Backbone:
C-alpha cells in the first residue's frame, strides 16, 4: 500500500501564495554563497559613491555628471538571499502524543520547505537529536519537493535531545548567518534557554515552532500512574488526580512561557502549535501570526 | 411483581456475573497504569507520593454503585419486570363478530349494523390490556376463527375491519360453545368471550346458555323490516306450460305493515298484490302463470321505512317447457289421434309412410305398421312392424298367443296390471342382446324396449301388436302404455320440475314420493355433490354460501336458488348478569403494569451520568462544556 503523502495537493496549492519571512538584514551575504536562480542587481536605490576604475558604466549617474562633471555610481539594494535552515527535533519525546508530535512536525516542516521552494529559496533540513544529523539541501522550485518529502519520511524519532550540543555543532558548521527554523517540543533534560541564547548570539535569526500535544499539556490519566520518560527511560510513580493535573498544566504553561521569552528575548520569533490543530490552520494561524510566513 | 422473561434465579445469576465483571473492570481501571510520556519534568511538580495500600481498593464508591445500579436496571428491563400477579399476566379473550345477514341492515344513523359492530369492536380492542391475547371469530350459521390467540392488536384490528355481513342466520349458541372450547383448548387463563352484534336469532334459540365470562357489545339499532321468506315455482303435471307460483312474505315488525308485492317474468308484470300484514305475521301468495319459454322471474316487495333491502327482491331462472314433436307415419292416423291429443306435452304431426323416408329429424317417430328403409336416428316407436324393415326382428305371427306378464321393473310397464288382454294375432318379436322385454305372451316377447347407446343410436320401442286395432282398444291399459312409451322415449320433456328461492343454511326439500338415497343427487353450483339426508320423503342439506343447488330424485327435480338472506325472527335479550358495553381502559382487569422501558431508561441514564462524572474523557467533555472559552484562551496565551 502506498504511503500517505505528507501534505495533500490542495494544501500545497494554498501554500503557494506564502513566503518565508525574516526580520534581520544580513550584509555581506548579498549574492553570497547560496545558489540562486535570480540574476542581476536589485531594484531599490540605496546610495551614490564615487566611480572607480572598473565599475560598471551602466550604473553611472550621467545626469549628475552633466551638472557636476564628476562621475558618481548609483548603488542599488539587492534582495538578500539568505539561507533557510530547518532544524527538526527527531528525539524520542517527539514520538509521544496522539497524534505523534513527530508526524505533525514532519508535515509542518514539509509545508515550510514547500513555501521556500516555491519562492526559489534554498532550504536545508536538519533533523537533530543529541547531535546534528545529516541534512538535506534542496532548491530549484516546487518540483524539487519530492526529495524533501522522501527525506522527511525516512527520519525516525528516537534518542535523546541535547540542545546545547546541537547548537554548538550548528554554529560551527554554518558560519554564514541566516534564518533558522526550529521545529521541536523543546523537551529535554536541560532547559533550552542557554542553547537558544548561544544560537542567537552567533547571528542566525531564530523562528521557534513549539509543537506539543494535548496530552503534553493536559494528561488525560487518572489514578495511580507509572510514568516512563520517553527519552531517558527514567520512571516515576505517582498519584494523579484533578488537582495534580492542574499543577501539571500550570508547570507546562510556565515552561512554554520560558521558552517563548527565551526566543523573543534574542530577537527571534515564537509560535506554539498543538497537534490537535490541523496543519493548515497551524500554518495560517500561529505561524503567520508569528510572522514566520506571510 | 414477577419477571416475564427470566426466572428469579436466572436474573440473580446474570446480575452476579455482570456485577463481578463490572467490579473487576473497575479495579483494573483503577490500578496503576503504565504510561510513556515526553518528559517527567512537569510530573514531578504535580506528583504526590503513591499510597500503595490504595491499589485494589475501591476509591470511588458512588461510581461503582452507580454502575451496578444501572446494570441492575438494564437487567430488570431485559427480564421485563412487571408489577402485579403472574397468574393473571395474560388472558385469552374471544371476540365474536356477528356477520349474519341481518348485519347488513341500516340503523337509524344511516350506518349498517355491521359498521356499528366494527366500530364498537375496535373500541373494545383499544381498551384491552396490552398483554392479553385475543382471537377474532366471525359468526353466522358457522363460527369461523379468523385470527389465532395473539397479542398483536394489528391483526385483530385488520380482522375486525374485514368483517362483512354474510347471507346466513346467526347461530349464537354454536359460536359461544365454540369460543368456550377454544379457551379451554388453550389451557391458559380464560378471559372474556365478547359478542358484538345485533343478537338477532331464530325463535328456537331464545334460550341461549351464556357462559359466565360473556360480555355483550350490543348494537342498539333495530331496523324496520318486511321481506320475502321463500318463493316456489312448480310446473303442472297436467300442463307443461303452466307454472304455479308460491311467494311467502313476512312482516318482522311488531306493528302492522302494508307491503306491495310485484312479480314479473322477463320484465313483464305477472302478478301484483297489496298485503296488509299483521305484526310478526307471514303470508303466502299463490297464483298460476303460463309460459313455455325460459326467463327470469323476479319477485319484489316494497314496504315503507324498510331498513333491510337484502330480502326485498328475489329472482328465479325458469327453464323452457317446449312441446315434444311427434311424427306419426301411418296410413290410418285417425286411430292414433285420440291417444296423442290427450297428451298435453306433445305436438303430433301425421304423415303417410312414403313421406317419412328421411324427413324426420327431431322429436319422436311413430311407425304404424310400417318401417323406414333407413332406421330413424331419433327415438322411435314401431307398432306391429312388418317383418321386413323392423329394427326388432319379427319371429312369427302367433294367433294362438295369450298375454302372460308385464315386466314390472321397466318404466314402460309402470302402473300396468291388466292380465286378460285379447291381442288378436300379435307378432312375436325376437329381442337382441341388451333389449328389454316389457310384455310377454305364451308365444314369446310382445313388447321390446331397446335402450339408446353412447354411439348415437336412439331408444326404440317395438310393439308386436297395434294398441288401438287389437283387442286392447277397449282397455284402460292402452293409453297408459302409450303414455309410458312416450315418456320413456323423451324423459326430459316429462320431468317434474320445481324451483325455490330461499335462504342459505339448512334447506329442507320435500319430495312427492319416497325416494331412496341411492337415486337422490344433491349437487351444488360448481357441480360438487353436497351431503344430504332423507327422512319422511324430505331431503335435508346444508349450504353456508349463496348459490344454486339441484336436487334430483327419479323424474323429479328441484332447483334451490339460495339467494335470500336468512333473517331470524327474534332479538336475543341477554340476562341481567351478563356484562354489557365496552369496558373502560384498564377496566378489563389489566393485572400488571409494564415498567421495563422505565427501567431501561434509568439504566442508560445511570451509565451516562457515571461516564460524565467519573470517566476522564467524560469529565473533560463536561469541563469543556462548562468553560468552553478557557481552552482557547490558554492556547492563545501559549501562542
Residues:
Amino acid at each position: 500500500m502506498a504511503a500517505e503523502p505528507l501534505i495533500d495537493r490542495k494544501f500545497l496549492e494554498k501554500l503557494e501564495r506564502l513566503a518565508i519571512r525574516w526580520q534581520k538584514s544580513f550584509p555581506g551575504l548579498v549574492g553570497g554563497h547560496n545558489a540562486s536562480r535570480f540574476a542581476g542587481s536589485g531594484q531599490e536605490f540605496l546610495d551614490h559613491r564615487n566611480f572607480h576604475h572598473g565599475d560598471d558604466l551602466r550604473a553611472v549617474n550621467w545626469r549628475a555628471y552633466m551638472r557636476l562633471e564628476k562621475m558618481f555610481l548609483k548603488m542599488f539594494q539587492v534582495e538578500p538571499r539568505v539561507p533557510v535552515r530547518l532544524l527538526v527535533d527527531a528525539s524520542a519525546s517527539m514520538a509521544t502524543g496522539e497524534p505523534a508530535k513527530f508526524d505533525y512536525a514532519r508535515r509542518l516542516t514539509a509545508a515550510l520547505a514547500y513555501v521556500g521552494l516555491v519562492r526559489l529559496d534554498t532550504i536545508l533540513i536538519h533533523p537533530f537529536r543529541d547531535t546534528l544529523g545529516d541534512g538535506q539541501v534542496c532548491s530549484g522550485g516546487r518540483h524539487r519537493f519530492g526529495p524533501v518529502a522522501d527525506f522527511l519520511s525516512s527520519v525516525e524519532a528516537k534518542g535523546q535531545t541535547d540542545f546545547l550540543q546541537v547548537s554548538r555543532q550548528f554554529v560551527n558548521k554554518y558560519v554564514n548567518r541566516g534564518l533558522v527554523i526550529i521545529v521541536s517540543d523543546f523537551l529535554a533534560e536541560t532547559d533550552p534557554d542557554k542553547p537558544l541564547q548561544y544560537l542567537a548570539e552567533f547571528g542566525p535569526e531564530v523562528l521557534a515552532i513549539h509543537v506539543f500535544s494535548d496530552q503534553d499539556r493536559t494528561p488525560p490519566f487518572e489514578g495511580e500512574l507509572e510514568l516512563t520518560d520517553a527519552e531517558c527511560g527514567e520512571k516515576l510513580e505517582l498519584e494523579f488526580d484533578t488537582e495534580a493535573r492542574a499543577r501539571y498544566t500550570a508547570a507546562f504553561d510556565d515552561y512554554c512561557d520560558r521558552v517563548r521569552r527565551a526566543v523573543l528575548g534574542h530577537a527571534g520569533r515564537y509560535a506554539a502549535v498543538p497537534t490537535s490543530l490541523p496543519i493548515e490552520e497551524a500554518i495560517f494561524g500561529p505561524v503567520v501570526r508569528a510572522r514566520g510566513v506571510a | 411483581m414477577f419477571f416475564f422473561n427470566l426466572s428469579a434465579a436466572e436474573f440473580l445469576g446474570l446480575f452476579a456475573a455482570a456485577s463481578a465483571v463490572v467490579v473487576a473492570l473497575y479495579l483494573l481501571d483503577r490500578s496503576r497504569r503504565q504510561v510513556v510520556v515526553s518528559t517527567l519534568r512537569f510530573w514531578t511538580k504535580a506528583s504526590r507520593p503513591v499510597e500503595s495500600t490504595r491499589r485494589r481498593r475501591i476509591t470511588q464508591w458512588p461510581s461503582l454503585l452507580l454502575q451496578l445500579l444501572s446494570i441492575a436496571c438494564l437487567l430488570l428491563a431485559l427480564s421485563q419486570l412487571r408489577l402485579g400477579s403472574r397468574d393473571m399476566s395474560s388472558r385469552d379473550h374471544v371476540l365474536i363478530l356477528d356477520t349474519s345477514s341481518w348485519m347488513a341492515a341500516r340503523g337509524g344513523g344511516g350506518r349498517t349494523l355491521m359498521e356499528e359492530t366494527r366500530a364498537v369492536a375496535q373500541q373494545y380492542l383499544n381498551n384491552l390490556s396490552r398483554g392479553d391475547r385475543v382471537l377474532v371469530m366471525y359468526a353466522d350459521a358457522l363460527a369461523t376463527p379468523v385470527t389465532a390467540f395473539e397479542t398483536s392488536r394489528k391483526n385483530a384490528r385488520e380482522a375486525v375491519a374485514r368483517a362483512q355481513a354474510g347471507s346466513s342466520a346467526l347461530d349464537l349458541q354454536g359460536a359461544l360453545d365454540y369460543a368456550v372450547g377454544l379457551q379451554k383448548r388453550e389451557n391458559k387463563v380464560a378471559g372474556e368471550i365478547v359478542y358484538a352484534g345485533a343478537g338477532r336469532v331464530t325463535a328456537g334459540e331464545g334460550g341461549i346458555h351464556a357462559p359466565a365470562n360473556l360480555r355483550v357489545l350490543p348494537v342498539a339499532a333495530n331496523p324496520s323490516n318486511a321481506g320475502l321468506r321463500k318463493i316456489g315455482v312448480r310446473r303442472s303435471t297436467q300442463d307443461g306450460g303452466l307454472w304455479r307460483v308460491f311467494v311467502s312474505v313476512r312482516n318482522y315488525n311488531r306493528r302492522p305493515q302494508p307491503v306491495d308485492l310485484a312479480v314479473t317474468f322477463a320484465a313483464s308484470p305477472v302478478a301484483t298484490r297489496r298485503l296488509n300484514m299483521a305484526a310478526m305475521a307471514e303470508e303466502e301468495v299463490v297464483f298460476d302463470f303460463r309460459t313455455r319459454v325460459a326467463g327470469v322471474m323476479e319477485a319484489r316487495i316494497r314496504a315503507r321505512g324498510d331498513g333491510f333491502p337484502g330480502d326485498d327482491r328475489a329472482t328465479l331462472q325458469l327453464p323452457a317447457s317446449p312441446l315434444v314433436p311427434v311424427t306419426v307415419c301411418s296410413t290410418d292416423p285417425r286411430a292414433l289421434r285420440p291417444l296423442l291429443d290427450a297428451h298435453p306435452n306433445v305436438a303430433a304431426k301425421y304423415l303417410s309412410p312414403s313421406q317419412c323416408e328421411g324427413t324426420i329429424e327431431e322429436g319422436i317417430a311413430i311407425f304404424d305398421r310400417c318401417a323406414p328403409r333407413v332406421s330413424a336416428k331419433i327415438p322411435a316407436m314401431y307398432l306391429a312392424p312388418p317383418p321386413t324393415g323392423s329394427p326388432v326382428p319379427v319371429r312369427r305371427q302367433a294367433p294362438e298367443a295369450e298375454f302372460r306378464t308385464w315386466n314390472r321393473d321397466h318404466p314402460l310397464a309402470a302402473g300396468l296390471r291388466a292380465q286378460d288382454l285379447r291381442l288378436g294375432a300379435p307378432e312375436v318379436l325376437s329381442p337382441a342382446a341388451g333389449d328389454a322385454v316389457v310384455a310377454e305372451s305364451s308365444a314369446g316377447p310382445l313388447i321390446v324396449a331397446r335402450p339408446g347407446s353412447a354411439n348415437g343410436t336412439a331408444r326404440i320401442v317395438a310393439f308386436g301388436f297395434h294398441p288401438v286395432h287389437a283387442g286392447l282398444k277397449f282397455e284402460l291399459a292402452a293409453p297408459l302404455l302409450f303414455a309410458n312409451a312416450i315418456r320413456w322415449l323423451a324423459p326430459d320433456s316429462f320431468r317434474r320440475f320445481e324451483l325455490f328461492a330461499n335462504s342459505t343454511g339448512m334447506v329442507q326439500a320435500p319430495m312427492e314420493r319416497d325416494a331412496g338415497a341411492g337415486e337422490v343427487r344433491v349437487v351444488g353450483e360448481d357441480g360438487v355433490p353436497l351431503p344430504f339426508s332423507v327422512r319422511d320423503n324430505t331431503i335435508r342439506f346444508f349450504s353456508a354460501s349463496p348459490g344454486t343447488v339441484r336436487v334430483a330424485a327419479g323424474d323429479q327435480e328441484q332447483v334451490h336458488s339460495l339467494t335470500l338472506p336468512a333473517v331470524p325472527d327474534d332479538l336475543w335479550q341477554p340476562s341481567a348478569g351478563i356484562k354489557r358495553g365496552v369496558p373502560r381502559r384498564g377496566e378489563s382487569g389489566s393485572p400488571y403494569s409494564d415498567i421495563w422501558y422505565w427501567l431501561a431508561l434509568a439504566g442508560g441514564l445511570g451509565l451516562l451520568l457515571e461516564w460524565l462524572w467519573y470517566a476522564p474523557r467524560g469529565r473533560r467533555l463536561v469541563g469543556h462544556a462548562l468553560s468552553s472559552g478557557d481552552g482557547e484562551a490558554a492556547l492563545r496565551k501559549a501562542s
Notes: Residues 101 and 172 of chain A are 28 Å apart (CA to CA).
